[in-house]
Structures are given as structure tokens and as C-alpha cells.
């Protein structure tokens, strides 16, 4: 319990300390014109109240990550608390805030465009393809999983018993309903659906986490394990070492590249640069707190890490079923239904904004204005078609694993952009450089360690290769930043 409470306190304190330092570092200026005023279009560039942009940003970035990822990542032991806390403070929240500030300063530009400004045209072209691919993959994951959750909760034998390939008719109907919502939310102005219902879902997400926290702290039924060592406690530690596997299992609660693709959506809706810290840094800290709570309850509910690993094996790694079991026992049948509703809402509200981000990224690099509904439809249709192909052709575990690596690779590139931004403006580049180097090593070593990629059995060789890739990239980017600094007036 002490480890958990200390980590919780550090996360809260970081918003008022490190978050304020980053705000000064970036020179947030309430008097500087913002995109919602300069480029108002009534579709994507629309000013909204700060409380609303905060809740929308929280729902945009939360998804299934701080719940499913935290429950599965807790299998590594209380070391997960440290990754969520320090990763969230110094990596994830800093990543989200500064990426958001960079987008603000570039008229709400999408991530590939801002990356190109600071890392060059070649990286920009690569990031355009990579970012759109990741957004479609995220949309597919967050379309299939809430549909599965809803279909499993509906008692309709007449529909669920009839199958089409690997999909029941019930599941196909639910998929279709969610897809229709995604299409509408992607095409309509941001304040029509997203700006109206997301704040409600955001409050539900926070209340759900606070309910679990109250049970943990005051019921007297559960004991949260303490951090005593860095020992890897996952069931198959040889195949799943802490570095890099924990760093990709728990992404959204610590650092996630997906967030940097969502920041431009709200950068186009802020009324002032001084709103960036609560909206970007504050939303990420809130997500880390949610992840911390779910990691703690996962360990406590099954009487320790060993019990959690046994439960993961029993349920076949189906985090949704495990979350349902936790909610039923801790909050009761009725409130458990609200928890599952909250989980579904988290997934759906990240899935639709993933497709919306993909539309904006494509529109930005093709130079297609988005006032016209016809042009929004022309861009969106191929994106939704690609998402459906992924759902019907790839198993969920494969989708999730590649999403995990692509997500953290995107975070790595964003951190290098942040480093170049700070370097160009003569500010403390270490804020970006240290996290960028860490995430470069995580992503490169994952390629050689993960069973779904190279899966090398020789861990020493895998880590050596990951280190070599990291070193090469570090040298290249440092020389590039030095060259850029010399060319500035």
C-alpha cells in the first residue's frame, strides 16, 4: 500500500511542479493567437471551454490502454508502479504537453507535419504513412474490442449462435452499429458529437477509477503488494523481460505515441496557450493515475502477483473478462455494468478520434480543405475500408502486438522531434533527449526480443543489437541537431 500511495502522491504533485516547469520552458503565452481563432472553420478549428477540452483529450488518449494494459502489465509485479509513475511524469506527460504546444505553435498541424518541421522532409514522409497506418490500426482494434464486449454481454442465442466465418451475426450487427457511429463522428464538426458526449464519458471514466480506488483504500479486503526489488514476476520471465516488454505492455498509462496524434485535435480547440498544461499534461497525469489504480487492483484482487499470473493464464489473457470479474466483485453487479460501459466508452471514444486523426493527417499532407463534407467523405471511406480489412484478416493478439510496437515507435519519433524543438530554441534539450534515448532502446530491442518479431533466444545478443541501433540513431540525430543549430541566425 505504501508504494502505491507514494506513486499516487508523486503523480498529483508532478502536475503542479514538473508540469509548471515545462510550461515555463515552452514559454506558454496567454496573449499569443491560437489556431481556433486564427483558422476557425466550424469543423475542426472550433474554440471550446477548457474543462471540455480536458475531458475530450482524456477520452481521446485513454482507450483500453490504462485499463487493459495496466491489468496485464501488473503481472510483471510492483515494478509496474514505478514505470507508470516515472514514465508518466517525465516521459508521457512531457511528451503530450510539448507535442501539444508544438502543434499549437504550428496552427494545429498534425504530427507528421510538425515532425517534418524539426526532423526533416524525409522523416515527415515516413511519418505520414506510419501515422495513418497506426491510426487505422488503432481504429480497427477499438472497433473490434468494444463490439466483442457488447456482444458477449447481450443474451441473444438466436443471433450469437449463427456464425459467419469467425464472427457471429450478433457481433457483426454490433460492429456495424459502432462503425456507423465512427463514420458520423469522423465527419461531423468536432463540437457536434465529440464535444457534447465525450465530457460525460470522461466524468464516467474518472468516477469509475475513483470507485475502484475507494474500494482499495477503505474496504479492508485487499492488500496491494509493495515494491521490494526489480525482479520480473511474470509467469514466463525468460520470454517476456521487463525491458522492453513491460514498456510496451503498459503504454497509455506511461507514454504512448498515439497521444501525440490526438493533441492536434484539441490544439485546434484551445482558447489560450495557458490551457495547454491542464489539457495535455493534466490529461496524461490523470490517465497515469487511472492506470496505477487498475494495476493495483489487479494485483490485490487475485491476492498478489502470482495469483494475477494464474488468472491471466486461466482467462487466456482476455483483459476484458478480468476487468469484468474485478468490477463484479468490488462494486457489485449493477455498478459492474457501468464499469463495462465505461470500458466500452473508452475504446469507442479513442477509435473514432483515431479515424478522425487519420482524416486530418491525410488532409494536411494532401492540402485538402475540410469545410466540404464531400471532401471529408472522400478521404474517410478508404480509411474505414482499410480498418475493416484489418479486423477480418488479423487476429486480435497480432493486431494488439503490432499496435504496441508501432505506438511506442511513434512516441520515440515524437520525443526526438521534441528534443529538436527544444534544441532549436536554445532550451533544456535533456527534457526530450533522455526519454528519446530510452524509448529508442525500448523500441529497437523489442524488435529483437519480441516473439512476434525476431524473437531471439540469445538475450545478450538481442540487447546488444538494440543498443547498437540506439547508438547509431543517437549519433545521427545529435549531428543533425548540431547542424541545424549552426544554420540558425
From TrEMBL:
Lineage top rank: taxon: Bacteria
Domain CstA N-terminal: start-end pairs: 4-144, 177-324
Biological processes per GO annotation: cellular response to starvation
InterPro entries assigned to the protein according to its UniProt record, in alphabetical order: CstA (IPR051605), CstA_N (IPR003706)
Subcellular location(s) of the protein: Cell membrane
Cellular component, GO, one term: plasma membrane
Transmembrane segments: 58-84, 129-147, 167-190, 197-218, 238-258, 279-302, 334-355, 376-397, 403-423, 430-449, 461-479
Record key words, sorted: Cell membrane, Membrane, Transmembrane, Transmembrane helix
Membrane topology: Multi-pass membrane protein
The family this protein is said to belong to: Belongs to the peptide transporter carbon starvation (CstA) (TC 2.A.114) family.
Protein name as it appears in the record: Carbon starvation CstA family protein
Species in which this protein is naturally found: Alistipes finegoldii
Lineage: Bacteria, Pseudomonadati, Bacteroidota, Bacteroidia, Bacteroidales
Amino acid at each position: 500500500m505504501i508504494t502505491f500511495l507514494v506513486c499516487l502522491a508523486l503523480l498529483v504533485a508532478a502536475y503542479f511542479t514538473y508540469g509548471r516547469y515545462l510550461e515555463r520552458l515552452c514559454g506558454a503565452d496567454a496573449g499569443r493567437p491560437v489556431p481556433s481563432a486564427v483558422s476557425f472553420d466550424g469543423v475542426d478549428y472550433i474554440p471550446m471551454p477548457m474543462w471540455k477540452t480536458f475531458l475530450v483529450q482524456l477520452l481521446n488518449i485513454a482507450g483500453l490502454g490504462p485499463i487493459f494494459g495496466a491489468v496485464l502489465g501488473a503481472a510483471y509485479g510492483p515494478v509496474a508502479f514505478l514505470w507508470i509513475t516515472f514514465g508518466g511524469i517525465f516521459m508521457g506527460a512531457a511528451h503530450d504537453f510539448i507535442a501539444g504546444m508544438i502543434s499549437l505553435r504550428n496552427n494545429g498541424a498534425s504530427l507528421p507535419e510538425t515532425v517534418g518541421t524539426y526532423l526533416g522532409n524525409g522523416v515527415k514522409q515516413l511519418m505520414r504513412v506510419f501515422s495513418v497506418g497506426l491510426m487505422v490500426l488503432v481504429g480497427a482494434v477499438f472497433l473490434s474490442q468494444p463490439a466483442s464486449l457488447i456482444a458477449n454481454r447481450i443474451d441473444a442465442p438466436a443471433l450469437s449462435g449463427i456464425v459467419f466465418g469467425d464472427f457471429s451475426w450478433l457481433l457483426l450487427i454490433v460492429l456495424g452499429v459502432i462503425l456507423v457511429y465512427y463514420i458520423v463522428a469522423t465527419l461531423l464538426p468536432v463540437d457536434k458529437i465529440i464535444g457534447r458526449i465525450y465530457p460525460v464519458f470522461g466524468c464516467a471514466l474518472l468516477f469509475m477509477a475513483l470507485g475502484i480506488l475507494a474500494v482499495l483504500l477503505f474496504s479492508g479486503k485487499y492488500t496491494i503488494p509493495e515494491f521490494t526489488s526489480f525482479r520480473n514476476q511474470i509467469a514466463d520471465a525468460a520470454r517476456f523481460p521487463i525491458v522492453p516488454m513491460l514498456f510496451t505492455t503498459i503504454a497509455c498509462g506511461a507514454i504512448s505515441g498515439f497521444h501525440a496524434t490526438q493533441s492536434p485535435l484539441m490544439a485546434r480547440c484551445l482558447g489560450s496557450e495557458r490551457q495547454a498544461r491542464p489539457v495535455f499534461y493534466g490529461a496524461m497525469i490523470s490517465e497515469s493515475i487511472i492506470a496505477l489504480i487498475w494495476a493495483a487492483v489487479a494485483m490485490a484482487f487475485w491476492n498478489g502477483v502470482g495469483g494475477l499470473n494464474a488468472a491471466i493464464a486461466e482467462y487466456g489473457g482476455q483483459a476484458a473478462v478480468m476487468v469484468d470479474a474485478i468490477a463484479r466483485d468490488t462494486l457489485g453487479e449493477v455498478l459492474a455494468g457501468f464499469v463495462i460501459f465505461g470500458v466500452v466508452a473508452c475504446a469507442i471514444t479513442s477509435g473514432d478520434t483515431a479515424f478522425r486523426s487519420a482524416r486530418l493527417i491525410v488532409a494536411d499532407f494532401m492540402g485538402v480543405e475540410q469545410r466540404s463534407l464531400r471532401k471529408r467523405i472522400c478521404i474517410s471511406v478508404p480509411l474505414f475500408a482499410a480498418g475493416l480489412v484489418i479486423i477480418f484478416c488479423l487476429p486480435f493478439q497480432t493486431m494488439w502486438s503490432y499496435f504496441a510496437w508501432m505506438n511506442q515507435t511513434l512516441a520515440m519519433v515524437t520525443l526526438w522531434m521534441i528534443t529538436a524543438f527544444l534544441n532549436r530554441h536554445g532550451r533544456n534539450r535533456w527534457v526530450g533527449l533522455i526519454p528519446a534515448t530510452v524509448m529508442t532502446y525500448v523500441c529497437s530491442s523489442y524488435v529483437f526480443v519480441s516473439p512476434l518479431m525476431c524473437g531471439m533466444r540469445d538475450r545478450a545478443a538481442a540487447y546488444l543489437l538494440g543498443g547498437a541501433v540506439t547508438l547509431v540513431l543517437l549519433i545521427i540525430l545529435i549531428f543533425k541537431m548540431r547542424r541545424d543549430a549552426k544554420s540558425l541566425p
